[in-house]
Amino acid sequence: MSERAKGESTRTERGNRTRAKLIEAAEKVFAELGYHDASIVKLTEAAGVAQGTFYLYFQSKQQIFDELVQDLNRRVRHAMSEASAGGVNRIESERLGFHAFFRFTAEHPALYRIIRQAEFVSPAALRLHYTRIVEGYVDGLDKAKSNGEITDLDTTVAAWALMGIGELIGMRWVLWDDSNDSLPEPVFDEVMALIQRALGARVLDSDTGEVT
After folding, report:
1. Is the distance from CB of 28 to CB of 51 less than 8 angstroms?
2. 160 in Cβ contact with 138 (< 8 Å)
3. 62 and 122 in contact (C-beta within 8 Å)?
4. Mean of the per-residue pLDDT values of the chain
5. Are 196 and 202 in contact (CB under 8 A)?
6. Which of 16, 40, 84, 178 has the highest count of CB atoms within 10 angstroms of its CB?
7. What is the pLDDT of residues 33-74, one digit of tens each?
């Protein structure tokens, strides 16, 4: 690698780190102060960078807010899809995916506060956030339906309904209850029993090949 290429690579790596610091600071500042009380000065102070540096990466407070919503969306979807991929059947994938969501909620309570702000600050970002989650969810439910693991239902309606369950349960038992660093196990079990009944989820016996 040439010296010039090395220098460009270093600048890119440094730039990526600075951008990541600003996004991380934005998560904290927007969650604590709200969009309207946050400012570029407070964002850069939290990130530990000069105010002028902000404009090397973002044109406005609105832009960094929108990119923060996208970043949170990417991270929560990754956590859920990575976890659910380990399931051997649909209900187990649901269990693993929901568990990952509630864990992410406990670790990133700003997710709720920021997404709710997006309803008024950036409706387009809010819609994109939910739509991206549902798209992946529908794909998984479609495969499960074709495999006979769940009942014949409208997978788009089911995906939106299940996402609503997860969000409100997480709000009540994780976000609102400071004593919980995860969803209480009895609540989680009740949620999963409800989801299994709603999906008409059946389990494929790996030994017999029969669905039960």
Report:
1. no
2. no
3. yes
4. 89
5. no
6. 84
7. 999 999 999 999 999 999 999 999 999 999 999 999 999 999
